[in-house]
Model the fold of this input.
Amino acid sequence: MRKLIVVASVAASLLLGCDQKSADKRETLSEALVAKSLSNMVPVQGGEFLMGDFGPLVGQKLPFSINQDDKVLHKAVLS
Done:
């Protein structure tokens, strides 16, 4: 019985130790992603602008994108 407790304790320690390394790695990767994302951002002045597919306004009046989730041209407001 005592041997079983020792084996279970060692197994639990190993499993918990692996989980901590995995969590640390995820945290490091998450911080790197945030840093990269923030470094790619630029300031944008507030105001109104048109957002969406501009294709119907130019040339042959065809959409620039074939993606179904692209919205039609609409007004957006940044404050």
User: Anything to note?
Assistant: The chain has a mean pLDDT of 82. The chain has one helix and two strands.
